[in-house]
Amino acid sequence: MTLDRRTLLKAAGAAGALNTVWPLSAGLSPAQAREAAEALGADYDPAPFTLGVASGDPQPGSVVLWTRLAPEPLAAEQKLPEVVAVEWVVAEDQALSRVVARGSAPASATLGHSVHVPVQGLAAGRTYWYAFKALGKTSRVGRTRTAPSGTVSRVRFAAANCQAFHDGYYAAHRGIAREDVDFVVHLGDYIYEHGPVGGDHVRDHEGPAVLTLADYRRRHALYKGDASLREAHAAHPWFLTWDDHEVANDYSGTGGGAPFLQRRAAAYQAWYENMPHRDGGESALPDPVLHRTRRWGNLLELTVLDLRSYRSAQNLADGTILGAEQKGWLKGTIDRAPDSWHVWANSIMLSQLRGRPGGSYMFTDQWDGFLAERKEILGHVHSSGLEDLVVVTGDWHSAFVDDLRVDFDDTSSPLVGTEFTAHSVTSGGYAADWNTTNGPLMGRGNPHLKYFEGNRYGYDVYELTPERFTTRMRVIADRRDPLSPVTTLTSFHVDRGRTGSYEDPATKGSPAQWRRD
Q1: How far apart are CA 348 and CA 363, in angstroms?
Q2: I want to staple 352 with a disulfide (CB 3.0 to 4.6 A). Which of 338, 408, 496, 513 is the partner?
């Protein structure tokens, strides 16, 4: 059976939705499913390493290497032995001739034939290359980097979030792959859990809403069917957190009955199987531990937060977004903080956001739904004397720059840091007309809001020196173009030892729906 892109898209247009012709919902074989996916824009590495390679959680002397064997990436089960031996190698050169470490790891069906290798004994602050071999085949070569120790003069990293497959191609990840950065932070919504959306999209989901482990595995495989995403993983080590769509929209980690808990366990396992994650718990399943603190020499302390797994329901007087254990851990991290830049990887907006002056909160699924705990944490930042705090955030599908205050309703309340909320990779934001109308309303309703721009897509690149923190908002021209060029929309700075940000004069004339003069 041969499927061509023109026929599939013509049929999709006639039906009004891609799900009527998408392979698995049409009852095709796994091989035909892959052929159809590729006809609709998905693309894979040669089998069995179809999903590519990745590295993550770099530390001085150590990094985690990842791959997953999936000869038929969209199949519910892989036609593989129960356990497959996967060889791995790390070298000082791209040709893999100067080998510094090698070994073999089992890829078991229990964990979707995924491999997570915590390589130890590497030199700090070094670039390495790596590859895998299994079933007589060799993977592509990936590049990674260990964290440095001691004095560091510069750190550069990128942050990405919200990459709905149906909303466009991952030109932003193509840009990230080509950036000169030390690592990447993904701030959540790596996949979306719902079914096909139909309409005028360049591509769509492969089937209905995902519920089971097989469903989530297939959805992750679909998303890694974008070559640019695999390229970004192969180019840099990643730190990862999640938001809601890795499981279900707006879910609470401590709510739901048995069916939802089963769904969450399946989603968490599939996430772990498909990410270069170094688990911090006693076992990888069923609840990966995401929150952690990592240092990049003496210049950066990175704190990764998990704002889904332990949260209560929203809008409760005693509600929690962190959970008791993580909150205690975060306070201890603040108390023990070294003299450096402090960056929190935060999946949903920390700053208060009212829709208009005196209006209600825009969304209480973010920190606005946990008012007492937010004030408690930011108050602890202030009372501890922590300086040089920058929070990097995703979720909103738009860019914001905010000052962080202990009490956002009191303009005399102490400033404790800056929050940069990045554009999404592809996930659709509000319409341009909405942004034009509501940007000034949000600006007037939130005195701490300095900048809002919602008409573009991309990622942020952050550069840290001992004197300054710089954010460059990198945007693509067109989500519908997988080769879309990347440009810098604007840049903001935070000076060491001074709380609050300011826009770079050279880019201050760039388009935006709100900026505070």
Answers
A1: 10
A2: 408
Instruction: Give me the pLDDT at residue 76, please.
Output: 79
Residue ranges for the chain with pLDDT beneath 50: 1-25
Q: Shortest CA distance to 186 belongs to which of 231, 247, 143, 240?
A: 240
Name the pTM for this structure.
0.94
Q: Which of 66, 116, 108 is nearest to 85 (CA)?
A: 108
- Half-sphere CA count of 92, side-chain side, radius 13 A: 8
- Strand partners for 143: 129
Q: N- to C-terminal Cα distance for the chain?
A: 61
For the purposes of burial, counting CB atoms within 10 Å of the CB of 126, is it exposed (0-12), middle (13-18) or buried (19 or more)?
Answer: middle
CA 161 to chain centre: 4
Tokens of 480: 């519908």
- Taking CA atoms, 242 is separated from 160, 184, 303, 468, 473, in Å, by 11, 14, 14, 28, 21
Instruction: Report helix angle 171-178 to 227-235, nearest 10.
Output: 20
pLDDT at site 230: 98
